[in-house]
């Protein structure tokens, strides 16, 4: 550590031992966050990036990838901190309640920032006022799939069957309150069909029961269902993005299949405590935008069915507000509950 960082460390020889000890204590204090960095010194310690889900999942993978690019390009130290639980609410609550000093950020997504606030009776934080939107990272649709030997060859086939047998067609849910769940509810509302939701504790058991004909269809993430589609064990009927997926170019969108404007995507958005200095949020935003131009990042996102987003701080704010209003309207109008 350079002595210029702590001017008082340039002590006279007689006090050298005491000076060295004082400098060591000062360095430890800075490293632990005990001393605030001066405006021009950020970051003077590691930056914490909270992932509100377990390691190895889609959100965790994207977070680690973009964090690595930001750290390498800017010579920062970014520590990914997994805080799973309550559909992502525990991790983001930790971000909302962290000091607004530019050293804590979190990877939010559609469910915990736009769906849960209207779907759950209570939240540990206010998604509209307690967090600062910093940078849009990527978006990913869900894929409507049926067993490969299903008689349904199109979305319209499924809808016709559901209308012919109200309440008899079973939709598997990887979990409740997710984009997959709400995409299914949106389809039921717009198509005016009545189906039976069968919730599971994760995508794996939901896919297993779909293959075993315990359910008839589900909206799954590309990571969960693409290998089965590629292996011809599942058939994709539609994707919920505005445009077709590069990895599934032959599969139409729900919008193309008779429901113009239909879109339900799981987006990733970096957030910070609400009073985080705008200048520091801007540094993270710029680093994310640069990282999203990396060929390796683009290739990875495309391979998993995601689309890079990016944009300014204002873009992030506007997008979040639009999504919060859109999902709130659907939940209200379709009378969606977790019961």
Describe the structure.
The structure is a single chain. This protein has 339 residues and is of the alpha/beta class. The protein contains eleven helices and eleven strands. A six-stranded mixed sheet has the order 2-1-3-10-4-11, sandwiched between helices. Strands 7-6-8-5-9 form a five-stranded mixed sheet. It is globular, with a radius of gyration of 23 Å.
Note poorly predicted spans: 1-38
Output mean pLDDT.
89
Number of helices: 11
Provide the succession of SSEs. HEHEHEHEEHEHEHEHEEHHEH
In percent terms, what proportion of residues is strand?
A: 15-25%
Which terms would index this structure?
339 residues; alpha/beta; 6-stranded mixed beta sheet; 5-stranded mixed beta sheet; 40% helix; disordered N terminus
List the helices and strands and how they pair.
Layout: H1 16-31, E1 47-51, H2 58-74, E2 78-82, H3 89-96, E3 104-109, H4 110-119, E4 131-141, E5 143-147, H5 155-164, E6 170-173, H6 179-191, E7 196-199, H7 203-211, E8 217-220, H8 222-230, E9 234-239, E10 265-273, H9 278-291, H10 295-303, E11 307-308, H11 313-333
Parallel strand pairs: 1-2, 1-3, 6-7, 6-8
Antiparallel strand pairs: 3-10, 4-10, 4-11, 5-8, 5-9
Helix pairs in contact: 2-9, 4-11
């Amino acid at each position: 550590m350079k002595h210029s960082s702590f001017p008082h460390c340039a002590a006279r020889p007689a006090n050298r031992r005491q000076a060295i000890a004082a400098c060591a204590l000062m360095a430890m204090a800075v490293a632990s966050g005990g001393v605030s960095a001066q405006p021009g010194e950020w970051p003077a310690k590691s930056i914490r990036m909270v992932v509100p889900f377990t390691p190895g999942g889609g959100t965790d993978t994207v977070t680690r990838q973009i964090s690595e690019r930001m750290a390498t390009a800017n010579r920062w130290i970014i520590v990914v901190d997994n805080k799973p639980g309550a559909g992502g609410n525990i991790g983001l609550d930790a971000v909302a309640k962290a000091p607004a000093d530019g050293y804590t950020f979190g990877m939010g997504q559609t469910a915990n920032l736009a769906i849960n606030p209207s779907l759950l009776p209570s939240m540990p934080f206010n998604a509209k006022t307690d967090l600062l939107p910093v940078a849009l990272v990527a978006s990913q649709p869900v894929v409507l799939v049926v067993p490969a030997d299903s008689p349904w060859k199109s979305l319209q086939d499924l809808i016709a069957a559901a209308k012919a047998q109200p309440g008899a067609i079973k939709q598997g849910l990887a979990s409740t309150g997710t984009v997959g769940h709400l995409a299914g509810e949106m389809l039921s509302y717009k198509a005016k069909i009545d189906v039976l939701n069968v919730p599971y504790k994760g995508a794996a058991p939901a896919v297993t029961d779909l293959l075993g004909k315990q359910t008839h269809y589900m909206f799954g993430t590309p990571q969960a269902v693409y290998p089965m589609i590629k292996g011809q064990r599942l058939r994709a009927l539609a994707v919920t993005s505005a445009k077709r997926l590069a990895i599934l170019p032959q599969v139409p969108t729900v919008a193309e299949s008779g429901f113009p404007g239909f879109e339900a995507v799981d987006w990733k958005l970096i957030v910070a405590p609400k009073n985080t200095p705008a200048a520091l949020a801007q540094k993270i935003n710029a680093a994310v935008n640069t990282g999203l131009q990396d060929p390796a990042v683009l290739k990875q996102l495309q391979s998993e069915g995601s689309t890079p987003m990016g944009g300014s701080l204002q873009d992030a704010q506007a997008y979040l507000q639009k999504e919060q209003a859109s999902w709130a309207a659907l939940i209200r109008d379709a009378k969606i509950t977790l019961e």
